[in-house]
Amino acid sequence: QVQLVESGGGLVQPGGSLRLSCTASGTIFDINIMGWYRQAPGEQRELVATVRSGGSIEYAESVKGRFTISKDNRYTVSLQMDSLKPEDTAVYYCTANLWSRGTRDYLDYWGEGTQVTVSS
Question: Is residue 10 within 8 Å of 117, Cβ to Cβ?
Answer without folding.
Answer: yes
